[in-house]
Amino acid sequence: MMYMSKELLADINVLRGRLWGDVITPHDNDWDEVRKSFNLLIDQHPTAIVYAESPEDVQATIRFAKRAGLRVAPQGTTHNSGPLGPLRDTILLRTTRMKGVTIDTERRVARAQAGAVWGDVTPLLEGTGLAALHGSSPTVGIVGYSLGGGLGWQARKHGMQANSVTAVEIVDPHGELLRATADQNADLFWALRGGGGNFGVVTAIEFKLHRTPVVYAGAMFWPVEHAAKVFERWSEMLPQLPDEFTSTARVLAFPPLDEVPEFLRGRKMTVVNGAVLGDSELGERLLAPLRELEPEIDTFEEVDPSALARLHMDPEDPMPYLTGHMLLDELPADGLTGLIEAATAEDSPLVVFELRHMGGALHRAAPHHGARATMAGDLLLFLVGGVMEPGDEVAVNEAIEGVLEAAAPWRSATSYINFIEEPAAADEFFDPRTLDRLRQVKSEYDPQNLIKANHELV
User: CA 196 to CA 77: how far, in whole Å?
Assistant: First the structure.
């Protein structure tokens, strides 16, 4: 356990008296529970953890940290906390309790405080004919997802969530509350939309909602033995698909747990998930080639857009896991065959092997877009392995690296910042021109590098 000096502990006690929220230190009994991450493999050891309940709490924390010579690492849901790296001499500033959400259906705009998750928004949109460009799980935080880009089920039609953001409220490293829009603090507004959280602590975010009266969405399931023909058929369909259809092809290993539906429990399955922004007539026509392969289960139907929140079937409780991803410019038939063989091997420890269809609006930049205007690649490869026992980590790492190595010949020039769960150099995510501009904004707003965010720019 890390112990702090009497002087710092006394100063933190003063900070406690100035906050509506709480301050937790290594001297508190609940420290080991509070510092946990959504990924239970991540062992966070900050100097202290502050639970802010208002923008004023955020301001007080930043001003305190600056006086004390500490850095501040914003954290909402603890998703993707690995890239923060070591947290020595750092206050972990949790915005978890700031969860207010308002919906303006006339203006088609939502406002969410920094701790809100997508599960706080999607139920409010049910029946409105509006949809947010939300993440793959209701537990994903809106702010972190949006700052890194944000890929959802409408991405091929409407692009990344970052480019639907209309305003950001942020406490800068001087402790001042700013509003960033296209007309106000425009350079900061540009950087925050896809450039990450390196510029301050976001307290609220506003974003456009998209007219989506109905979607035709669901999943098809086949036994894993059908993976080769399903992936081949899906791959053949992609060039002809309209932007209204976003889909994934996956191999999923379902655990033998009671929470898993009985027909999936303990089985490895081939799955195609998808969402068609349209009615059943359009959806059935687009999905006809897959239906010819006679899936064991077919859940596609017309649904309210709010139903997309759980379409990806992501776990919603913390667990220990490792991930890997790669954006692919293409994937020829022989390359796809090799990847499928690795994913379906009987001894593979991977629980998720996924190819996500990219392109469409993700390839189209517009002058009003932010730092991450587009996403490279026609496909996104995503891998997950559970680490349930101490010895599992080596085998899972080897499996992930093996698949990524096999896919390397078709790798795109950049990676996706939200899918890298360990510290990485910023030039892995941004082209040189964009990175230079991001660093200029960083030096203007945070010259002392007070803010420690996922994937630092300096």
Answer: 15
